[in-house]
Amino acid sequence: MDEVFANLNITDDEEEILEGQSIDEEEDEEYELCLVGNVLTKSVVHFPSMRRTLAEVWHPVGGISITDLGEKRILFRFYHEIDISRGILWFFNRHLVLLHRLEKGERLLQ
After folding, report:
1. What's the confidence (pLDDT) of residue 49?
2. Which are the contacts of 89, defined by CB distance < 8 A and separation ≥ 6?
3. Fold of the 33-110 domain
4. d(CA 58, CA 107)
């Protein structure tokens, strides 16, 4: 094994700078088509029912992923720009659901 690595040499002209997206840019793109929702209620919210109901009501063209963030907060990830423009105010089971579109550079759990 040492013999294989003995002939390896890196010179300045062999170094190549790889440019790519930074972690922050990748994170921004990851949440580009996302809404964060907050259910305004003191009672328990049955997340599976909410996820199923809102997915059926919205019936998004590109699909949707709905994730429970805890503390009555929900992440709605859309896969097409047209789907995210459905509004920022919804009701589920007579409880107000406020939605906020994540902006570039904004952190998910702020």
Report:
1. 93
2. 96, 97, 98, 99
3. Alpha-Beta Plaits (3.30.70)
4. 25
Domain regions of the chain by residue span: 33-110
**pLDDT tens digits along 63-84:** 999 999 999 999 999 998 888 8
Long-range contacts of the stretch 86-90 (C-beta < 8 A, 24+): 86/58, 88/35, 90/37, 90/54
Name the residue with tokens 């840019």: 25
Three-state DSSP string of the chain: CHHHHHCCCCCHHHCCCCCCCCHHHHHHHHCCCEEEEEEECCCCCCHHHHHHHHHHHHCCCCCEEEEEEECCEEEEEECCHHHHCCCCEEEECCEEEEEEECCCCCCCCC
Whether the full predicted model's pTM is greater than 0.85, yes or no, is no
